[in-house]
Amino acid sequence: MHSRTDRAAYIDRRLAELYPETPIPLDHTSPYTLLIAVLLSAQCTDKRVNLTTPALFAKADNPRDMAKLSVDEINAIVRPCGLAPRKAQAIHRLSEILLEKHGGEVPRSFEELEALPGVGHKTASVVMAQAFGVPTFPVDTHIHRLAERWKLTDGRSVEQTERDLKKLFPRERWNALHLRIIFYGREHCTARGCDGMRCELCRALFPERKRAVRVR
Hints:
Elements: H1 4-18, H2 31-40, H3 46-59, H4 63-68, H5 71-78, H6 84-101, H7 110-114, H8 121-130, H9 141-149, H10 158-168, H11 174-187, H12 200-205, H13 207-215
């Protein structure tokens, strides 16, 4: 498959077959608890976050209760997620800001989300997609790596990868597709487990890679 468009169409079709359901990996019960879980997932596995958040949400699953906790109390719970002092401070302060500026609700715009402490574009994108159903294409390390491996982008930056993927795939597919790529990257096309020639999709997309190895 020589063109990006052909590869994108095949990827979209095959991943939909492999993952007809796209459950959200981070456990949550509201836009607020999703926001906190996504913030904690920075440089941390979803599995670790899901093991950590029950204790935190048992104490505070809304901004009012979270703001009543001290940063040290939050820090003691979220420490296993790494970068704990910074994350604890961000969780505490963003909870105060939600109360001060947004009536205790998670805002529904990129601009307002990204103005919150600890919330970058990727975190905002996940919340907009998974809490509010707005089409976005959050690019994490799995998606960035696979998009480059599958030659859907030149991989110069996460921002460029996001722009390229949005051009290649229909807008109504973005939210499901970004999860499907993550699932596939974790399960089949891992950083060390696949060298671009081993997993099903890599073999289907680039049969010439295998032939080139044989010729050598």
